[in-house]
Structure prediction request, 265 residues.
Amino acid sequence: MVGAAALHAGNAFVVSLAFADLVVAIYPYPLVLTAIFHDGWIAGYIHCQISGFLMGLSVIGSIFNITGIAINRYCYICHSLKYDKLFSNSNTMCYVVLVWVLTILAIVPNWFVESLQYDPRVYSCTFAQSVSSLYTITVVVVHFILPIGIVSYCYLRIWILVIQVRRRVKPDTRPKINPHDLRNFLTMFVVFVLFAVCWAPLNLIGLAVALDSRLSWAIPEWLFTASYFMAYFNSCLNAVVYGALNHNFRKEYKRIVLIIFKFHC
Prediction:
Protein backbone atom coordinates (compact mmCIF):
# COMPACT_ATOMS: atom_id res chain seq x y z
CA MET A 1 0.00 0.00 0.00
CA VAL A 2 2.82 2.39 0.92
CA GLY A 3 4.70 1.49 -2.26
CA ALA A 4 1.70 2.26 -4.47
CA ALA A 5 1.08 5.58 -2.71
CA ALA A 6 4.77 6.49 -2.97
CA LEU A 7 4.80 5.70 -6.68
CA HIS A 8 1.72 7.85 -7.31
CA ALA A 9 3.03 10.77 -5.27
CA GLY A 10 6.48 10.58 -6.82
CA ASN A 11 5.01 10.43 -10.32
CA ALA A 12 2.79 13.45 -9.64
CA PHE A 13 5.80 15.61 -8.83
CA VAL A 14 7.85 14.19 -11.73
CA VAL A 15 5.03 14.96 -14.20
CA SER A 16 4.77 18.45 -12.72
CA LEU A 17 8.54 18.90 -13.13
CA ALA A 18 8.34 17.66 -16.73
CA PHE A 19 5.61 20.24 -17.42
CA ALA A 20 7.86 22.97 -16.01
CA ASP A 21 10.64 21.86 -18.37
CA LEU A 22 8.30 21.86 -21.38
CA VAL A 23 6.92 25.35 -20.76
CA VAL A 24 10.04 27.05 -22.13
CA ALA A 25 10.11 24.86 -25.23
CA ILE A 26 6.53 25.71 -26.22
CA TYR A 27 6.75 29.51 -26.31
CA PRO A 28 9.92 31.30 -25.12
CA TYR A 29 12.57 29.24 -26.96
CA PRO A 30 11.04 29.73 -30.43
CA LEU A 31 11.01 33.50 -29.78
CA VAL A 32 14.63 33.36 -28.62
CA LEU A 33 15.61 31.55 -31.84
CA THR A 34 13.76 34.20 -33.85
CA ALA A 35 15.65 36.94 -31.99
CA ILE A 36 18.96 35.19 -32.71
CA PHE A 37 18.20 34.89 -36.43
CA HIS A 38 17.14 38.57 -36.66
CA ASP A 39 19.85 39.77 -34.25
CA GLY A 40 17.23 41.46 -32.09
CA TRP A 41 13.77 41.14 -30.56
CA ILE A 42 11.04 41.59 -33.18
CA ALA A 43 8.04 40.04 -31.40
CA GLY A 44 7.00 43.16 -29.52
CA TYR A 45 6.53 44.17 -25.88
CA ILE A 46 3.58 41.91 -25.04
CA HIS A 47 5.32 38.78 -26.32
CA CYS A 48 8.43 39.86 -24.45
CA GLN A 49 6.49 40.00 -21.17
CA ILE A 50 4.76 36.68 -21.82
CA SER A 51 8.05 35.03 -22.76
CA GLY A 52 9.77 36.35 -19.63
CA PHE A 53 6.84 35.26 -17.48
CA LEU A 54 6.87 31.72 -18.90
CA MET A 55 10.62 31.44 -18.50
CA GLY A 56 10.25 32.43 -14.86
CA LEU A 57 7.37 29.99 -14.50
CA SER A 58 9.57 27.20 -15.82
CA VAL A 59 12.59 28.01 -13.67
CA ILE A 60 10.80 28.60 -10.39
CA GLY A 61 8.38 25.75 -11.07
CA SER A 62 11.35 23.43 -11.63
CA ILE A 63 13.14 24.26 -8.38
CA PHE A 64 9.90 24.18 -6.36
CA ASN A 65 8.99 20.78 -7.85
CA ILE A 66 12.49 19.48 -7.19
CA THR A 67 12.02 20.64 -3.60
CA GLY A 68 8.67 18.83 -3.45
CA ILE A 69 10.26 15.64 -4.80
CA ALA A 70 13.05 15.83 -2.21
CA ILE A 71 10.57 16.29 0.65
CA ASN A 72 8.48 13.42 -0.73
CA ARG A 73 11.53 11.10 -0.92
CA TYR A 74 12.65 12.18 2.55
CA CYS A 75 9.26 11.40 4.09
CA TYR A 76 8.99 8.07 2.25
CA ILE A 77 12.44 6.80 3.19
CA CYS A 78 13.07 8.44 6.56
CA HIS A 79 9.50 8.65 7.94
CA SER A 80 7.74 5.76 6.22
CA LEU A 81 5.21 5.23 9.04
CA LYS A 82 3.75 8.72 8.49
CA TYR A 83 4.05 8.66 4.72
CA ASP A 84 0.58 7.33 3.82
CA LYS A 85 -1.11 10.06 5.82
CA LEU A 86 1.14 12.87 4.58
CA PHE A 87 1.09 11.87 0.91
CA SER A 88 -2.35 10.47 0.27
CA ASN A 89 -3.69 10.96 -3.26
CA SER A 90 -5.68 14.05 -2.33
CA ASN A 91 -2.87 15.56 -0.26
CA THR A 92 -0.37 15.00 -3.06
CA MET A 93 -2.55 16.79 -5.59
CA CYS A 94 -2.92 19.66 -3.13
CA TYR A 95 0.87 19.83 -2.76
CA VAL A 96 1.34 19.97 -6.54
CA VAL A 97 -1.27 22.73 -6.84
CA LEU A 98 0.44 24.58 -3.96
CA VAL A 99 3.77 24.36 -5.79
CA TRP A 100 2.30 26.10 -8.83
CA VAL A 101 0.41 28.69 -6.77
CA LEU A 102 3.66 29.60 -5.00
CA THR A 103 5.43 29.66 -8.36
CA ILE A 104 2.97 32.16 -9.80
CA LEU A 105 3.06 34.28 -6.64
CA ALA A 106 6.85 34.33 -6.88
CA ILE A 107 6.75 35.66 -10.45
CA VAL A 108 4.05 38.33 -10.06
CA PRO A 109 6.36 40.89 -8.30
CA ASN A 110 8.44 41.06 -11.50
CA TRP A 111 5.67 43.10 -13.11
CA PHE A 112 5.64 45.60 -10.26
CA VAL A 113 9.40 46.22 -10.39
CA GLU A 114 9.42 45.95 -14.22
CA SER A 115 12.26 43.44 -14.17
CA LEU A 116 11.17 41.38 -17.20
CA GLN A 117 13.20 43.01 -19.95
CA TYR A 118 14.89 42.10 -23.21
CA ASP A 119 18.60 41.36 -22.79
CA PRO A 120 20.48 41.56 -26.10
CA ARG A 121 23.38 39.55 -24.67
CA VAL A 122 21.22 36.42 -24.54
CA TYR A 123 18.52 37.36 -27.07
CA SER A 124 15.86 36.75 -24.41
CA CYS A 125 13.24 38.56 -22.41
CA THR A 126 14.21 37.57 -18.92
CA PHE A 127 14.74 38.73 -15.35
CA ALA A 128 16.99 41.81 -15.33
CA GLN A 129 19.32 41.48 -12.34
CA SER A 130 20.30 45.16 -12.40
CA VAL A 131 16.81 46.64 -11.87
CA SER A 132 16.86 46.40 -8.07
CA SER A 133 19.65 45.10 -5.85
CA LEU A 134 17.30 44.29 -2.97
CA TYR A 135 14.86 42.49 -5.24
CA THR A 136 17.65 40.51 -6.93
CA ILE A 137 18.99 39.37 -3.55
CA THR A 138 15.46 38.35 -2.52
CA VAL A 139 14.98 36.41 -5.77
CA VAL A 140 18.27 34.52 -5.41
CA VAL A 141 17.59 33.67 -1.76
CA VAL A 142 13.93 32.66 -2.13
CA HIS A 143 14.12 31.05 -5.58
CA PHE A 144 17.51 29.34 -5.30
CA ILE A 145 19.41 29.34 -2.00
CA LEU A 146 16.46 28.45 0.27
CA PRO A 147 15.11 25.59 -1.94
CA ILE A 148 18.66 24.26 -2.48
CA GLY A 149 19.16 24.27 1.28
CA ILE A 150 15.93 22.33 1.89
CA VAL A 151 16.71 19.79 -0.83
CA SER A 152 20.29 19.38 0.43
CA TYR A 153 19.03 18.67 3.95
CA CYS A 154 16.50 16.08 2.71
CA TYR A 155 19.01 14.24 0.52
CA LEU A 156 21.72 14.40 3.17
CA ARG A 157 19.41 12.68 5.64
CA ILE A 158 18.50 10.07 3.03
CA TRP A 159 22.16 9.42 2.21
CA ILE A 160 22.96 8.99 5.92
CA LEU A 161 20.17 6.44 6.21
CA VAL A 162 21.24 4.61 3.05
CA ILE A 163 24.84 4.40 4.33
CA GLN A 164 23.62 3.11 7.69
CA VAL A 165 21.54 0.44 5.97
CA ARG A 166 24.45 -0.55 3.73
CA ARG A 167 26.76 -0.84 6.72
CA ARG A 168 24.10 -2.75 8.65
CA VAL A 169 23.97 -0.27 11.53
CA LYS A 170 21.46 -1.43 14.16
CA PRO A 171 20.33 -4.48 12.13
CA ASP A 172 17.33 -5.14 14.35
CA THR A 173 15.77 -1.73 13.84
CA ARG A 174 17.10 -0.50 10.50
CA PRO A 175 14.49 0.28 7.81
CA LYS A 176 14.51 -1.63 4.54
CA ILE A 177 15.25 0.20 1.30
CA ASN A 178 14.46 -1.85 -1.77
CA PRO A 179 16.50 -1.44 -4.99
CA HIS A 180 13.60 0.19 -6.87
CA ASP A 181 13.25 2.95 -4.26
CA LEU A 182 17.02 3.45 -4.25
CA ARG A 183 17.12 3.82 -8.07
CA ASN A 184 14.29 6.37 -7.97
CA PHE A 185 16.10 8.29 -5.26
CA LEU A 186 19.36 8.29 -7.22
CA THR A 187 17.56 9.51 -10.36
CA MET A 188 16.00 12.47 -8.59
CA PHE A 189 19.25 13.18 -6.72
CA VAL A 190 21.07 13.48 -10.07
CA VAL A 191 18.29 15.78 -11.35
CA PHE A 192 18.84 18.00 -8.30
CA VAL A 193 22.64 18.05 -8.65
CA LEU A 194 22.42 18.99 -12.34
CA PHE A 195 19.95 21.77 -11.55
CA ALA A 196 22.20 23.17 -8.81
CA VAL A 197 25.31 23.00 -11.02
CA CYS A 198 23.60 24.57 -14.05
CA TRP A 199 21.89 27.40 -12.17
CA ALA A 200 24.52 28.22 -9.56
CA PRO A 201 26.76 30.40 -11.82
CA LEU A 202 23.93 32.68 -12.99
CA ASN A 203 22.54 33.06 -9.46
CA LEU A 204 25.97 33.73 -7.97
CA ILE A 205 26.66 36.38 -10.60
CA GLY A 206 23.32 38.03 -9.85
CA LEU A 207 23.97 37.93 -6.11
CA ALA A 208 27.49 39.32 -6.48
CA VAL A 209 26.34 42.21 -8.69
CA ALA A 210 23.44 42.96 -6.33
CA LEU A 211 25.79 43.13 -3.34
CA ASP A 212 28.34 45.28 -5.19
CA SER A 213 27.18 47.02 -8.38
CA ARG A 214 30.81 47.74 -9.36
CA LEU A 215 31.23 44.05 -10.14
CA SER A 216 28.87 44.38 -13.11
CA TRP A 217 31.74 45.98 -15.04
CA ALA A 218 34.22 43.31 -13.93
CA ILE A 219 32.19 40.30 -15.07
CA PRO A 220 32.97 39.45 -18.72
CA GLU A 221 30.00 39.37 -21.07
CA TRP A 222 30.94 35.88 -22.28
CA LEU A 223 30.79 34.58 -18.69
CA PHE A 224 27.27 35.94 -18.16
CA THR A 225 26.12 34.60 -21.54
CA ALA A 226 27.63 31.17 -20.87
CA SER A 227 26.06 30.99 -17.41
CA TYR A 228 22.68 32.01 -18.82
CA PHE A 229 22.57 29.40 -21.57
CA MET A 230 24.03 26.82 -19.20
CA ALA A 231 21.11 27.48 -16.87
CA TYR A 232 18.44 27.09 -19.53
CA PHE A 233 20.17 24.03 -20.98
CA ASN A 234 19.19 22.31 -17.73
CA SER A 235 15.62 21.92 -19.02
CA CYS A 236 16.95 19.53 -21.67
CA LEU A 237 18.94 17.41 -19.25
CA ASN A 238 16.15 15.92 -17.14
CA ALA A 239 14.81 13.77 -19.97
CA VAL A 240 18.34 12.45 -20.56
CA VAL A 241 18.73 11.61 -16.87
CA TYR A 242 15.38 9.78 -16.80
CA GLY A 243 16.36 7.75 -19.87
CA ALA A 244 19.84 6.92 -18.56
CA LEU A 245 18.87 5.92 -15.03
CA ASN A 246 15.29 4.67 -15.24
CA HIS A 247 14.47 1.40 -17.00
CA ASN A 248 10.81 2.31 -17.60
CA PHE A 249 11.76 5.59 -19.27
CA ARG A 250 14.34 3.81 -21.46
CA LYS A 251 11.74 1.28 -22.53
CA GLU A 252 9.25 4.02 -23.42
CA TYR A 253 11.91 6.00 -25.30
CA LYS A 254 12.74 2.92 -27.40
CA ARG A 255 9.05 2.28 -28.08
CA ILE A 256 8.48 5.89 -29.21
CA VAL A 257 11.58 5.85 -31.43
CA LEU A 258 10.48 2.58 -33.05
CA ILE A 259 6.98 3.96 -33.68
CA ILE A 260 8.44 7.11 -35.28
CA PHE A 261 10.87 5.04 -37.36
CA LYS A 262 8.12 2.71 -38.60
CA PHE A 263 5.87 5.68 -39.34
CA HIS A 264 8.48 7.36 -41.54
CA CYS A 265 9.40 4.11 -43.25
Notes: The chain has eleven helices and two strands. Residues 117 and 247 are 42 Å apart (CA to CA). The first strand starts at residue 116 and ends at 119.
